[in-house]
Design brief:
The protein is mainly alpha-helical and about 130 residues long. Helices cover about 80% and strands about 0% of the residues.
Length: about 130
Amino acid sequence: MNKTIVIAGAALGLTGVALGALGAHALREQLEPVALESFQTGVRYQMYHALFLLFLGVERTLGEGTRKWTFRFILGGTLCFSFSIYLLSTSGITGWDFSSIGWVTPVGGLLLLTGWGLLLYRVFRLTGR
């Protein structure tokens, strides 16, 4: 087990549940429906990748380099993707204009795709032996 990866997955899961509850209860009356839907998309992707990291942290067939780089791509991608969505979707109630960081969301998506792609590539190489 890789303790760092499992801790990161658990931390993303914990904050994902908290942010999901915030969105479902406190923000429901505060945000426009489209902004609330975006916020929940951020939560959903954060939770998917929390589970991904938990799996990655206990998985034993991948090499350490693959595990490390996949972790970096997934964690960085989740932070960029989900947290930029949180900021962008709540700008209406915070009064802060976060539109200048809109480019961070697709960068986060690209990092997530890279992490998943690396895992897929390495698994194909493992099963091809």
